[in-house]
TrEMBL record:
Catalytic residues (UniProt): E433 (proton acceptor)
Binding-site positions, FAD: T151, G190
Protein name, as recorded: Acyl-coenzyme A oxidase
Cofactor(s) named in the record: FAD
Gene3D superfamilies from the UniProt entry: Acyl-CoA dehydrogenase/oxidase, N-terminal domain (1.10.540.10), Butyryl-CoA Dehydrogenase, subunit A, domain 2 (2.40.110.10), Butyryl-CoA Dehydrogenase, subunit A, domain 3 (1.20.140.10)
Amino acid sequence: MSGAVYENPDLKRERSQCLFDKEEITNLIDGGKEKTKERRDLEEFIVCDEDLKDSVPIEYLSHADKYSAELRKACLLFKKLSNPSNGPAEVSTVALLSTGAGAITLKEGNPLALHYIMFLPSLMSMCTPEQQEKWLPKATSLQMIGTYAQTEMGHGTFLRGLETTATYDPTTKEFILESPSITAYKWWPGGLGQTTNYAIVMAQLFTHEKCEGIHPFLVQLRDEETHEPLPGISVGEIGPKLGFNTVNNGYLGFEKVRIPRDHLLMKHSQVLEDGTYIKPASTKLGYGAMVFVRVLVVRDVAVQLRKAVTIATRYSCVRHQSELKPGDPEPQILDYVAQQNKLFPPLAATFGFHFAANYVWDLYNSAREGIGKGDLHLMPDLHGLSCALKALSSSEASNFVEVLRQSCGGHGYMVCSNFPRIYSLVTAAETYEGENTVLWLQVAKYLIKTRMDKSGGKSVAYLIDSNLMNNKIVDLNNDSITNLFQRVAAGYVDLAIKKLEGYNRQGMAPHDAWNHSAIHLIKGAQAHARYVVADCFVRSIKEGKFSDPVRLILNQLCELLLTYWLVEHSGDFFMFADLSANQLFKLQSKYMELLGTIRTYAVNLVDSFDIRDEALDSVLGCWDGNAYQRLFDEASKSPLNKTSVHRESFEKYLKPLMKSNL
Ligand SMILES: CCCCCCCCCC/C=C\CCC/C=C/C(=O)SCCNC(=O)CCNC(=O)[C@H](O)C(C)(C)COP(=O)(O)OP(=O)(O)OC[C@H]1O[C@@H](n2cnc3c(N)ncnc32)[C@H](O)[C@@H]1OP(=O)(O)O
Ligand SMILES: Cc1cc2nc3c(=O)[nH]c(=O)nc-3n(C[C@H](O)[C@H](O)[C@H](O)COP(=O)(O)OP(=O)(O)OC[C@H]3O[C@@H](n4cnc5c(N)ncnc54)[C@H](O)[C@@H]3O)c2cc1C
């Protein structure tokens, strides 16, 4: 696999006992044999290209030099791959973004990411054919480099509260953009700092002195030749963050900036020359770019989690610590049940999120196809599902990654373990593209509406089943546990409805009642999201074509994840699903048994994720298991180790202190 000569003997032993076809799992994750080949070709191309390597480890560079180093590689990468004779013919842009193959070379974040993830998709989904004809060629050839500028310093979640205005002036047939206060400054858009020359700006549209709500506008920010900001535009970078430090997140303010009328993206709503406003079929059509990224995040988070699990599992195989049996040599830490409890639920979750990501991606495509024909009926279900899965996958993955870091002890705290970076990426997904709490409340709103109105999409259809709470569950297996999650979700929804009605009877205003019910509402939404993942997992195993060994492994992982969630939230199941203490004891025993079973193939399973060393980027998780030598090699790269004494600081600070006789 890595071509390395050395292979740690513990890993070698595990690998010699593999009882399933690893390639089958690799193909499953990639989406088929062809996709595996495409990915491997692309990774090979990136790894072998000397120009895409860093001359100095990026960790030791200044903030500005890091940005410059990543931008150099990002530009080079897109330039090289735009010419198929340079590399693999089939290159999906998403594969180059975030944790895809592009992460091999762009570790701290791609300054061009927002151009591809949100700017181009916005042009494609919100422009008229004429607008597309004018702008898409320039945007795809990167003459126009754009971002998605929505969030403001004072307003992120509450879009109706955005302050930036775009006021139509029928005399010149222009919109005038204005940031009325410091809190109205756009704050956060990726690439906005120094990279982009255009942006899709979300602003409150005013025409005939009436506010028509937020709308997307294409705004030129910088001169196409000199890259200098245009008059009235104030733009810059927001500074260092927990992660994504080379994504170049920026700020943007407008002072009476005029743009032509047809820079309003007019596919869904229009302003005519005389200022007449034409409404969209739904005001939420303008939120499409956010929905797209929420859908992508579920897949992306699964990629990150696979990396973290691979690192922790391989390290747990080579790390020996303490005493399991008195007098025996130190065992592999992978043999401690407490360690397995840290590793295997996230291992199982990578598959659950993978299947759920496929499901929501298919729904996204069906909904987009419908919207193209004027059929909006899938929009509420897509909104509910994308919010639920984005929030669940990012929050669970953040918690899991932290536990996986802890599972590697002190070495997991090193930057060269790659845990800090992985954590910074997954936790960011809890906030961007809709803060998770807020998304949970959106899901809850959909669930309540479905339960009360007896209408809703496929993902919530179970809430309309009048027998849901009466079904007696005798056997606890993957199917019946999935049903229990439905009952918990419905139980919380009913409880929240009762609370809302009670508050209403007490004379409380609906919005206050909603606020007072938030905790139950969120718990219901979370149980619903777990149900969706469980259902996708169970159905994908039933419907997929697998060899017997792989089917067995997938069933065991599914059972482990569902049991783990049930045990973790057992109180909910006592309250809403008639779970008995006896059933819980049995489930706990089953869980322990599954940990032991998964232990036998865990190393081979993470190998089958097929994450090459350059993508894993972790001294602890390398394929050869040579963790200690690699730790040492990394330490030797520290600039402080270049000389035996750090002369400058010693002479300036330490020596005077030592001589001062305090
Ligand atoms: C493996 C390779 C993968 C590679 C790809 C990698 C991608 C990921 C990595 C990228 C890395 C970094 C990129 C980061 C980029 C980040 C960008 C951003 O963060 S952009 C800014 C995002 N901002 C938000 O998300 C704001 C959140 N707020 C909202 O969405 C809204 O304000 C909301 C929904 C909270 C409320 O909206 P509003 O106030 O207008 O609505 P109401 O609450 O009154 O609800 C009204 C009604 O509308 C329904 N609704 C709301 N939204 C939608 C929607 N999108 N679609 C359909 N329906 C919607 C809502 O349910 C209500 O319905 P009703 O029937 O009336 O109850
Ligand atoms: C890495 C990163 C990249 C980003 N990239 C972009 C980008 O490219 N373009 C862009 O426009 N934006 C971007 N953003 C901004 C991002 O979309 C917002 O930060 C996000 O939508 C949350 O909004 P906020 O920061 O205003 O948080 P707030 O909404 O102020 O949240 C603060 C707290 O208030 C709580 N809260 C808010 N409303 C409610 C409510 N109704 N009920 C209960 N609790 C509530 C939240 O749960 C949270 O705990 C990015 C952010 C990050 C971190």
